[in-house]
Amino acid sequence: MRIALIGSSGLIGSHLLGHLGKHELLSLSRRATLPERDGWREKLGSMEEWPAMLAGERIDVAIATIGTTRAKTPDWEAYEAIDRHAVVNFARAAKAAGARHLIVVSSSMANAGSSNRYLKIKGLMEEDLKALGFQRLDIVRPGLLRGDRGPERRFKERLGILISPVTNLLLRGPLEKFQAIDASVVAEAMAKMLSWSKPGTRVHHNRDLRARAAKPARVNGV
Length: 222
Description:
Largest sheet: 7 strands, parallel
Mean pLDDT: 88
Oligomer: single chain
Number of helices: 8
Number of domains: 1
Shape: globular
Number of strands: 9
Helix content: 25-40%
Order of helices and strands: EHEEHEHEHEEHHEHEH
CATH class: Alpha Beta
């Protein structure tokens, strides 16, 4: 399978690489991060250059795990350029290169009509991607991600992860989608989605992601 990926150096993307060894992989990035491996390639450039980098490529599946934080990108226009426009432009170019399947990481409360700027950007990104007309679209909506981001973590985020064993016990039923979840679990679930070809759009929250990660990979799954 020929995969195009943005976000290989991120929390989820770095875990996802461990599941892609048997596939041909093209990573688009602003800096060199991809380990050397047969069948793996990396093209470097700015986000604005990524779509052009897919010209002439043959892609089966596109995966977008890219995302920034308010701490790194406090300007909302710059934030939207990364979390919405860079993702959508990449997806559009991947589709033009033949991709039938798109897997994208969003947010548990993404909503294009939200008054919260972050959630609105994520929701608008999802709506933009749906409009592209992929044969299969998997939208991944994890809760608070657990994993090592080093000094990038903000204090409130670190605190949330620290107390997540307790809060996860309280967030049950419909609230389970807000629980903290390991980035490695999200990545494993996404890897299982690569074999799915049944047409349609699916949205995956924490419960589904955990269940998918725990099951063997299936061909033509839902």
